[in-house]
Amino acid sequence: MTTIDWQKLTRIAGQIRRNIITMLAESASGHPGGSLSAVEILTYLYFQEMRVKTNEPRWSDRDRFVLSKGHAAPLLYAVLAEKGFFAREELLTFRKINSRLQGHPDMKKVPGVDMSTGSLGQGFSASVGMAIAGKIDKKNYRVYALLGDGEVEEGQVWEAAMAAAHYKLDNLTAFLDYNRLQIDGCIDEVISPEPLDEKFCSFGWNVLCIDGHDFRQIAKAVEEAKAFRGKPTMIVARTVKGKGVSFMENEVGWHGAAPNREQAAQALAELAERE
Amino acid sequence: MEKIATRDAYGKALVRLGEINKDIVVLDADLSKSTKTIDFKKVFPERFFNMGIAEQNLLGTAAGLAASGKIPFVSTFAVFATGRAFEQVRNSIAYTRLNVKIAATHAGLTVGEDGASHQALADIALMRALPNMVVVVPADAVETEKAVFAAAGMEGPVYIRMGRSGVPVLFAGDYDFKIGRAAMLKEGCDVTVIACGIMVAEALLAAQRLNEQKISVRVLNMSTIKPIDEEAVLKAARETGAVVTAEEHTIIGGLGSAVAEILAEKHPALLERVGIKDTFGESGKPQELLDKYGLTAADIESAVKRVLKRKV
Questions:
Q1: Using CB atoms, which residue from B47, B68, B92 is nearest to A122?
Q2: Mean pLDDT over all residues of chain A?
Q3: CB 3.0-4.6 Å disulfide test: which of A11, A124, A196, B254 passes with A68?
Q4: Each residue of B239-258: b (16+ CB within 10 Å) or e?
């Protein structure tokens, strides 16, 4: 493994969290909880792992990323802007009329978005298709997907999981943002999808369980997934919904509610203090 | 007249297409023997993917393949492709305008014995309502092959609707097919019958019978329902003053509705719609069903007479 600048990754993650809060406060709508929970995962992928070209977003050999939990669009946009796909100022147009930054990602509008998502389960299938295409073309690009733990209640997720295992898509790595909350409450109370690791295991996946906020664990899991042959890998990443903002952490109400100016100021102050 | 099911023509066309275009991949959902994608599988097993009985993932995977430069032809029964996976078609294929060709078979009543659960009668309406979606309903084997090649040759999603049962071969090999263009199969001045799919042969038969009764019928094959050939519809309305539509589909939202929309807005003309009258089908032999649900040449003939009676 090449030397990783952990401090740099932590710094970027902090910047991305602040960008998420700023854009949500500006748009006065959107999904903070599930955006904040997967910041480290996306930061690692885009700033350490994935081969992408900001000046050639459709480069055919690039690694792909599909945000299957499309409501975490603020996270994806913040990452893409930080990476340089478009200007950071554009984040302030999120969810506004005539903006490229739709409430859920639109691949036709935003450079760097590999698949339009928003309807849960669908992005996962698209990532299966991308991985199959990579196998047909004997390309060595990898496909990454991020799923929510509520999302796996969709039947389509299991259809896709079955297909990925059947076609031995070891070029596909999915992350499960295991923050244990969905809109109506705790996943166990709404309709339990547990045990998640065993389910994916029995569907023929290589399953790894990690702390989704620990860069070192993310790095190790990604490397293991890359080395694993014959099966796709599901990285079940334990996370905290609303991570980094005290009053949002583990609070179900922050799934789809934007902070007001005051709350945003407090959140930004907390995030600045952590660095 | 020789009869070939459009699905049989589809299977053969796919193989020819696969030979000349290496980006073609084919996906099916455990129905390859029925949809005839098995023909492609036999020749190009490395480009054929059976996704199992999982239509949502079938369509979603196709979207991912298209996003990676492939041209997926996706086949299953029309009722599942457009119904079971409607929202996948909407969000992952139409909204994204990805290059997926949804080639569905077993559309309409002529599925026959399988009955109402398997008879797609609203698929045209569903697909027509989606922005970016092109909707093609070939009338015979020749047009099916040409539609398959035309779909592969254009960028963006296309829905091709095919049937289970044999239909007369109407066109010669040099038939000039173009997506978005109606074909005038018979000139006439009293009334125009605009038909698609298996109803085109019935329309020609009806026109012949009416001709013997001194009624001059124009017959248009409207194989592209979207984008519809508006000019051909308006020309028919202007020149014949009365229109009858005929489709193996509910009269709500399909060809009849598309024609009605154009006429109502641009050139009001008398209209009668032959199609399924807001009901589900049932089990039976294809011909028995067509008779019972009013989808025969005789039904078109009656509709023509009704519309002419309204013409004062």
A1: B92
A2: 97
A3: A124
A4: ebbbbbbbbbbbbebbbbbb
